[in-house]
Amino acid sequence: MAGIRAAQKEKTRRALIQAAMNQLSAEHGYASLSLREVAREAGIAPTSFYRHFQNMEELGLTLVDEGGLTLRQLLRQSRQQIAKGGSIIRASVTTFMEFVNNNTAIFRLLLQEKSGNSREFRMAVAREVEHFTSELEDYLVDEQKFTRELAELQADAIVRIVFSVGADALDADNKERQRLTEQTIHQLRIIARGAEATRTAAIPTE
């Protein structure tokens, strides 16, 4: 019996998360969402909302956390393609752009709240960006043998570029999104070559 109740509670919780995502758009940011409207779309009474989240801010922070986790998981999978002879830059950029296309509401939320009015939201988004950057930095150190300092600089540049391009891709059609993808791949390859040249220049000659 307890297991059935727990499953139903999780189902309702997921319904609230999905309802909030459904209502996000370029015109309606998270701050404009109404608890009553979210509860109505999820099919529950507004008073039942508080059985799952303390307030709308907690629901929003959950969206940020889940969006960041989903993106990191997808990028981990894309990095595995390098073992199959694929291009790590192409695989990562393509995966990122697919995430933006398939999770427009979540990515728009990340962008909007990155500089929004809520300190809690800003900190949550900053943490997700930091996780994203740190994983890339670790990959550059562990797999490509860069120094920590050079990996940090390279990872930071890459993340800034892809998030900026992701913002441009939100309202782009397929043709423009493909152009942005190819342009970003070229830009990141230039950064990678620059990092490699910097590493080579730092190696003392005999």
Reading the helices and strands in chain order gives HHHHHHHH
Uncertain runs are: none
Report the major sheet: none
Rounded to an integer in angstroms, the radius of gyration calculated over CA atoms is 20 Å
- The number of helical segments is 8
The CATH superfamily of the largest domain is known as Tetracycline Repressor, domain 2
Structural class: mainly alpha
Principal-axes shape call: elongated
What percentage of amino acids are in beta strands?
under 5%
Could you estimate the helical fraction of the residues in percent? Answer: over 70%
What is the CATH topology assignment of the largest domain? Tetracycline Repressor, domain 2
Q: Tally of extended strands? A: 0
Q: How many domain regions?
A: 2
Question: What oligomeric state best describes the polypeptide chains here?
Answer: single chain
User: What integer is the average pLDDT?
Assistant: 88
The N- to C-terminal Cα distance equals 73 Å
The CATH class assignment of the largest domain is Mainly Alpha
At CATH level 2, the architecture of the largest domain is Orthogonal Bundle
